[in-house]
Every structure is written in C-alpha cells, then in structure tokens.
Amino acid sequence: MHHAIPYVDIGPLFGAPAAARDRTDHAIMAAAASPGFMVVGGFPEGIPTGRAARADLLRLFQLPGQETRKLWRQKFDPANPNVYRGWFPLQTGFLTAKEGIDMGADVAYGRSVVYPGDPLREATPLPGADSLPGWHESVGKYYRAMDRVSQVLMRAIARGLSLEEHFFDQAFEKGLSTLRLLRYPIRTDTARTAQSDPGLWVHHQGQRHYVNGAPHVDSGFLTLLAQDGVSGLQAHHRDGTWLDVPPADDGLAVNFGKVLERWCGGRIKATEHRVIGTGRERLSIPFFYEARADAEIAPLPMDGESFAPFLYGDYLWATTTQ
Fold first, then answer.
1. Which residues of 47-82 are buried (b: 16+ CB within 10 A; e: fewer)?
2. In this structure, how many other beta carbons lie within 10 angstroms of the beta carbon of residue 263?
3. Which of 85, 94, 8 lies closest to 288 in space, CA to CA?
4. Could you tell me the end-to-end alpha-carbon distance of the chain, in angstroms, rounded to an integer?
5. Phi/psi at 237 (nearest 5 deg)?
6. Contact call for residues 26 and 156 (beta carbons, < 8 A)
7. Which of 126, 173, 238, 245 is the most buried (most CB within 10 A)?
C-alpha cells in the first residue's frame, strides 16, 4: 500500500467558524492520528514563509566561525554563561551531523520573558545587529508568526477533541518555544562514523544514503519545520516504511511530540523521523512550540486519572539534562 504525508490547507483556521474550518479540523486530527505528520499551507498575509523569508534568517550561517563561536553553549565553551540557548557546533563521528542555534522567546518578546537563574528562560546569545542588518527583527517576526500558527493548530486540536477551543491557550502564553536554525553539511566523516555506528548507512527506494539526523521522536508538543528546498526528512510509518516529507516551498512540515501524545491520551501520535543525506547541504528552520515552565500538564477532562499531572518546566529540564 502506498502511503504519503498529507497536505492540509489551514487557511480556514484563521477565519470565523465555518464548514471549511470544521473540515480542516477533521483533516488535522486524521493526520495527527496517523501518520503523525502533515504539510500545512494556505497561510494568511503576514506569515513569513517561502524562499526569501528563509534566506533572510539563514544568513546567520554566512558569519565567520569566530563570530558564531561567541554564541556557543557552555557545554562547548565553558567560558560562556548560556546553558540551554545558543549555538551548537558540528560534532563529527556521530550519527547526527548538524550545527545551528537555539533561540528562545526573548527574541520575540524581549527581556520580560528572561528569568536569571533559570536556564530554560535564559537570554539567547545573538550576533551583533551590525553584523547581520535587519536579522534580529526578522527573527522576532518569524518567532511571533510561528507562535500564531501553532496557536491556531492547537485550537483546531482542542475542537477536534471536543474541548473548548481555547482549552490549551494559557499553557502556551509566552512559553518556552524554541526557534532553531539548522545546517546539515555534506558528511566527510562517513568511514569513521560507520565504524562506531553501523546504522549510518540506510537504503531507501533502491539507493544507499547516509543518515544525517538520527531517528528520534520530538519530546514536546508541536514542531513546525520550514525546509529549504532540499529533501531528506523522513517519517517512520506504522508499517515500518520511511515516508519522504516533501520540502514544500511555501508550506511547513508539522509533527507532534511525546508530551502532546500523552496529554491527548494517545489520540495524537508522536512519530519517529530522521534525516538522510542526498549529496547536498541541507538547511532547515524548526520551531518547537512549547508550554510555559509553570504550565501543568494534566489528563484531559474525559480521561480521568490516566497519568500523574506534572509541570512542563520540570519535565523539560529532566529531558534536557538526562
């Protein structure tokens, strides 16, 4: 049987209640149940998708190494104070081979969301405004736009679960969402990596590919991914096949995380995915929609006491440090 990642036009979610919005809600819930992945499009004005918007953000990777070095996380440069936000350099010899930066809500909402002493809510280290003119503003605009798209998706999910449509709103108000800029270079370490990890090489549609991003399930709620025209992202179908997630130029790939799967009583599936190499450098922009540190994740009204309630910040810190 042939499976494919569904495309959903989510334009109706930004409008008033209507039959078209009901159909969109239904399509989202169907995709969320299986395969746990979709590509969405049909955004209103003001949502910066497409090639030009991506190129604007991805200018970061044109900076020289001595500039990005200042943004490194403490794990990679003990002299730096930032623990959770900031730059992670390319590590060779591992199944995942990527570099990039994790940015928090302060890039969109300023110092009001920074809490000194809480690594999850620390300030994001950024390059100087003069080195990338207009980049800080573009990052803030993009973060707020992804916040908006994520919110309408969560409202669709609430309606799809027969909950009041604003049920999830408060949990995500200026939450811990991460905007990440990612670069997967063409691998040059395959011989060494294959010795330590035999899973490096995979076969797909009769061809051999190296893995660039190890198979994993996202930990949180929603991921909105802008792909920069290069294929390679794949979702693991229930039947064991790997499905290509098309890099739609004006669309966003959407998948769901483990916390949302648990919160929704398994009605939404957190799907394993990976990135395989295609012989080209791959750039992408994931946005991880995440709840506030003090948001309580408790069973939905219809699910009784299916799990013990927990605070999202506690869960996130535990997964980050394990």
1. bbbeeebbebbbbbbebeeeebeebbbeeeeeebeb
2. 25
3. 85
4. 39
5. -75, 155
6. no
7. 245
- Indicate yes or no: pTM above 0.90: yes
Angle of CA points 270, 274, 279, to nearest 5°: 155
Contact 249, 219 (CB under 8 A): no
Quickly list H helices, the chain.
Answer: 19-33, 51-58, 65-68, 106-109, 135-160, 169-172, 190-196, 258-263, 312-321
For residues 260 and 247, the answer to whether their CB atoms sit within 8 Å is no
DSSP 8-state symbol, 114: -
Q: Which three-class secondary structure state does DSSP give residue 152?
A: helix
Helix, strand, coil shares, percent, the chain, to 5: 35, 20, 45
Angle at 96 between CA 154 and CA 212, to 5 degrees: 90
Task: For the chain, state the CA radius of gyration.
Answer: 19
